[in-house]
Amino acid sequence: MITHDAEAGTGGLDGSLLFEMDRDENKGAISFNETYAFLGSMYSDALSISDITALGMYVTVANCGGPILKMRAGRVDATEAGPSGVPEPTNDTPTMVARFAKAGMNVTQMVASVACGHTLGGIHGNDFPEIAGPGRSNDTDFLLFDSSATRFDNKVVTEYFSGNTSNLLVVGPEATNSDKRVFLADQNITMQALSTPEVFSSMCASVFEKMMDTVPSSVKLSDPIEPYPVKPTQLDIALTPEGNITFEGALRIQSGDRENVDDLVVKMPYKDRTGNACDGCTIETRPATFQGGFGSGFGGSFKFFQFSTSLPASTSISNFNVTIQPPNSSDIEIQDNNGVGFPIDDRIIPLQDQSCINEGPFEGDENKWNMTIVAAIRDELADKPVKLEVAVKTPRQGVIIPAIIKQSVQMEPWSDVENFKTAGYTLFKASFGLLVDSLQSSYDVVSGEGDEEVRKVFVGTGSLISKECKPWA
Questions:
Q1: CATH code for the domain defined by 349-464
Q2: What's the confidence (pLDDT) of residue 381?
Q3: Are 157 and 179 in contact (CB under 8 A)?
Q4: More exposed terminus of the chain, fewer Cβ within 10 Å: N or C?
């Protein structure tokens, strides 16, 4: 984010580093690319590499014993390199101060960002042989900033004051002692404050969050993300040839101070497609069994409850609430998603059983796999154009993360099978040639255009790879 221009509102955490690996100021391209290759497995049409980078910082700091940062979403990836201007070890103090000021950081924040950033990691000798010194310039030479370089603590500060620091940006060649110049920029005032562990943790959290949230002025980030008390997850809705809707998934319930979570009675009262409730409109759940049904993260611990049910397609489901009743209690907690219920849209239903991705060639192209997608469209939408939009991961020269480009094909009624019109739905089908790099991707099914558009978004393709497309029977 250091190349951010606060006055102009440009740059920041926008992924432009991907296009800047060849710059001398960004030494260590191999390490950068290894990191992005790892993070890139999460990159998708719904999650930018910029958000993933911020999330990586959140997870790394927490995993290493640091503070829990506030994580926001909504960063937008740049499509080209940004301006240069990353501070270098040979820069003098006025240059450093000016560079951080342009990015919107004062001297205190500059000192804190460097000290907090260097509590982990070190210098790669092969990238900086002039700093590492003789005999330490191999790709295996990694020279640590402090004695606990995998632990988030303030030893980078205390060892600086005690005179036994291993930080070569403090005690290395004078010309490249950039950390020392930064720390002394305010006569060690900030470093003295950071020598207290509690202050170190709070100041690091503040400056890291500022760095994570430094984005172009055109980008509006979300509020800090907090775990929901109840979150529906892994939801799947399907249509059967018999005219039923199958609905299954899980509920993630924050354990918190709850007692006997295994014995909670969790139910899902729901409303039908028209928004009406009924006495029998309740879905039962059961405790999940995988890993004991428990999960945990930096946001706390969770208990999972599974459900699977079949509903008449003629009435279906539009939304549901969640009721939680402790054992041996008449108290019932209602989670209603801020009064609107948890919505279910059944107008477009991708049929994963009838969909598949198999090895090519596709229309004579050996490089493409055959992707077949079938979706059930409500009859009131079936007279409008229906298309399949696929998120295609497209390689970019010199950039390890591919571009994601939406490509579309028309879907046609699957009229060569019996019952292609079932229970108020019409089945549509499309074929698409998918490159190997995009096998793990996503697709949308779209009915109509403009104000009449209805879209089922971000349907994953991973479960379709090398499986049989089941017949509709």
A1: 2.60.40
A2: 96
A3: no
A4: C
